[in-house]
Write a structure and sequence with these properties.
single chain; elongated; two-stranded parallel ribbon; mainly alpha; 705 residues; three-stranded antiparallel β-sheet
Length: 705
């Protein structure tokens, strides 16, 4: 059976686990980067090893020699002896100064005024918003290093060594969040990173750990690190800035987050089937593996079927006699998860493939194959654009710096679809006309005083609306730039920035949904206990009131089935009422059913009096309310409560939320509720942010790290 997406995520999480426990190491060699290694370096401050073998250094030195040799020839070389972009009409032999001019031109982004404070600079939230996040910057340096170590850029080993030193020392250059159009590479971020190496006193970076982490100017930072400023030689500036490292690194972070959310979408979809007392029927193999065998659809159906197999809440199939089965089939959002999520899994796998290739590519204006056999090295050297074809004596110019934003746009659209499904499941769960017996807004207290998830519904609508806006493509907003030389450009970094915004919003809506599902689980447990007590009272009180005029007994299954079925319907229809009046109406309406059934059981010459019916109504109303209040007052939500026992594989998620995260049940009682609903939802949100929920989601579908 198809499990490509689940297998991919499991392998990524296992790799991250190996980085965390020290058994695995990221390696910079030009072809070994993957998504887990980027995450480890970016978010976990993992220090990658580097290929510093003599063979690698020899290739790099040979590449440098080729560039320097070409710089002396009459034939111009782009970015070596010419200007850049639309200004490539100019020529110069001052190759080192040309690289300085390039960086000076690019460093035009808007940043905080790091010199405005006499003491230590403390950034305001508004100033932070101008900067690329530090984890994005670390990932960018890592990916760029992996590109230039391929000996296709003409940069010296000292550049590679010192850039690696910055990663080792947890340096994060301060680069502008906005500036790049990812056309001739992510010029802005890479220019600010590169200028740290030159000791430019007007370029700044974070350094230090914990409370000692501060912002330093480049010159001061290099002194602290015992590094000498580097004077760039021919082409080195261009080689450093002309690549897709920033958009590729952030895309790697985003795709991993999307994979986790895609699994969460499946798990929460299965959990919603349980909470709504839905059917397992729509997930059977015939519908997916034979009838419509799309790979993503098959995988989602397989996962949901596995999750629900042991559930005591999800029906195996529709039963016409089920009093809660009046709707022949579940609504689309409950039964249509495989068809809805499946295509997104396939899109995410394609995006993953594109990102994997990008992480180990040479991307730059000089990203092309100058195949020259260097006289001092028995290796074939590839130099970036222009590309020299030895066999045809021809120079090729290309555009491998063009980091098209399709991957991030696939991710963002998939995120929207996940969020849309989550929202529709959430709103059905909160709607007492659709949720098969749960109270409106999942209130535990009286509905007239407890509105529990009502405002959470509104918040979720807010999240979804913003996600839907962000789902629009960025690539359709390309405008011509740089003397019309960059008439098309990818906007890849802009696009993936919005994808990361969407990731955060989807985490918010899923956290809200999971909170509601766990709340609903405890309400189902209370419902189970209450109905058990009520049905026992129904048998005993009915026999007590009518046993002397009829042949009914407490073990008359046929008789009481005909009574309990309409009772369940009446209970489900009245969850919006407060308990003090609710049960009076329920048993007043139920009396008609019981009279109809009793007529078949009456002894000869016996009849049912109005007073006995009224007495039965009054007694059952009181017994029902007593059982209802007692059930709520004595229920103890915990990691392994009655709610836990009702669930299938999702019990691991319930246990995680109630146990490890300590998320509290909302009682709707100021005396019991010591925290606000948002405080509790935020606990789940942080579990998505720090990744601690991911292994639990894997466990639910039967995978282990």
């Amino acid at each position: 059976m198809a499990s490509a997406h689940l297998g991919l995520l499991a392998s990524q999480l296992s790799a991250l686990h190996s980085y965390d426990n020290g058994t695995g190491f990221a390696f910079i060699d030009g072809h070994s980067l993957d998504v887990p290694s980027v995450i480890a370096v970016s978010r976990k401050n993992h220090v990658p090893k580097i290929d510093d073998s003599d063979a690698t250094k020899e290739r790099i030195s040979a590449a440098v020699d080729v560039v320097q040799s070409l710089a002396l020839e009459v034939q111009s070389q782009y970015g070596v002896t010419t200007g850049f972009g639309g200004s490539a009409t100019t020529r110069t032999k001052r190759t080192a100064l040309l690289q300085k001019a390039l960086l000076a031109s690019i460093q035009c982004g808007i940043l905080p005024d790091f010199r405005s404070s006499k003491g230590e600079k403390v950034l305001t939230p508004e100033e932070y918003s101008l900067l690329l996040p530090q984890d994005w910057i670390r990932g960018t340096m890592f990916v760029r290093l992996n590109s230039i170590i391929r000996a296709q850029s003409g940069t010296r080993w000292i550049i590679i060594e010192n850039l690696h030193k910055l990663i080792q020392e947890n340096v994060a250059p301060c680069a502008p969040l906005r500036q790049s159009i990812s056309a001739s590479g992510d010029l802005g971020p890479l220019a600010y990173i590169s200028s740290i190496l030159t000791g430019n006193p007007d370029i700044f970076a974070w350094h230090g750990e914990g409370e000692d982490r501060k912002i330093y100017d480049s010159a001061t930072l290099l002194e602290k690190l015992n590094l000498e400023p580097i004077d760039l030689i021919a082409k080195e500036g261009l080689a450093l800035v002309n690549g897709t490292a920033a958009s590729a690194a952030v895309s790697a972070l985003a795709i991993h987050d999307c994979h986790i959310l895609a699994l969460a979408s499946q798990v929460l979809g299965a959990y919603a089937v349980e909470a709504i007392k839905g059917s397992q029927e729509p997930f059977q193999p015939f519908l997916h593996e034979l009838s419509r065998p799309h790979k993503g659809q098959i995988e989602v159906a397989t996962n949901i079927r596995y999750i629900l197999k042991s559930s005591k809440l999800a029906r195996v199939q529709h039963e016409e006699s089920d009093p809660e089965g009046q709707l022949r089939q579940d609504t689309y959002c409950v039964r249509g998860s495989p068809q809805w999520i499946g295509p997104s899994l396939e899109d995410l796998l394609l995006a993953q493939e594109q990102i994997d290739i990008e992480l180990n590519s040479t991307t730059g204006e000089l990203d092309d194959n100058i195949e020259i056999l260097h006289p001092n090295a028995n290796v074939s050297i590839q130099i970036l654009n222009p590309v020299v074809d030895i066999d045809s004596n021809y120079i090729h110019h290309g555009a491998n710096f063009m980091a098209m934003s399709y991957a991030s746009e696939k991710m963002r659209l998939a995120l929207h679809h996940m969020a849309k499904l989550t929202y529709t499941q959430l709103t059905e769960l909160l709607n007492n006309h659709m949720n098969k017996g749960l109270p409106p807004n999942l209130s535990v207290n009286e509905p007239s005083l407890d509105y529990c998830m009502k405002a959470s519904d509104i918040a979720a609508a807010s999240y979804l609306s913003e996600i839907a806006y962000l789902a629009n493509p960025v690539s359709t907003h390309v405008i011509s730039a740089e003397m019309h030389n960059q008439a098309i450009n990818s906007l890849a970094l802009i696009s993936v920035r919005y994808t990361m915004d969407a990731v955060k919003l989807v985490r918010m809506i899923m956290s809200t949904h999971l909170y509601a599902l766990v709340q609903a689980t405890d309400l189902r447990a209370m419902e189970f206990t209450f109905r058990h007590s009520l049905f026992e009272a129904l048998r005993s009180e009915t026999v007590a009131h009518f046993g002397h005029v009829s042949s009914i007994t407490t073990d008359d299954e046929t008789f009481f089935r005909e009574i309990t079925h309409p009772l369940v319907v009446l209970l489900n229809a009245t969850t919006w009422e407060d308990s003090y009046s609710r049960f009076e109406g329920v048993f007043r309406k139920l009396s008609g059913y019981i009279l109809k059934q009793l007529k078949r059981k009456l002894y000869p010459n016996k009849d049912i009096t109005l007073s006995s019916v009224e007495g039965w109504q009054e007694t059952m109303s009181a017994r029902a309310r007593e059982a209802f209040i007692h059930t709520k007052d004595t229920y103890i939500p915990s990691a392994e409560s009655k709610g836990y026992e009702l669930l299938g594989r999702t019990k691991a998620l319930y246990k995680f939320v109630r146990g490890e995260l300590g998320v509290e049940l909302h009682w709707g009682d100021p005396e019991k509720d010591k925290t606000e609903i948002g405080t509790e939802i935020a606990k789940i949100f942080r579990a998505f942010e720090n990744g601690s929920i991911a292994p639990v989601l894997l466990d639910v579908v039967g995978k282990q790290l």
